[in-house]
Amino acid sequence: MATLPSQAPLPPVQLWCIGQIFCPAMILQAVNITWLYSNPKTFVNKPTGKSAQQVLSDFSVFNLLTVMEGDLANFVETKFSGEGLELKAAALTNFNANLAFLNNVVDLLLKAFTQIVNRYWTQQAMLVDFGQIHLSIAT
Question: Considering the entire predicted model, what is its pTM?
Answer without folding.
Answer: 0.63
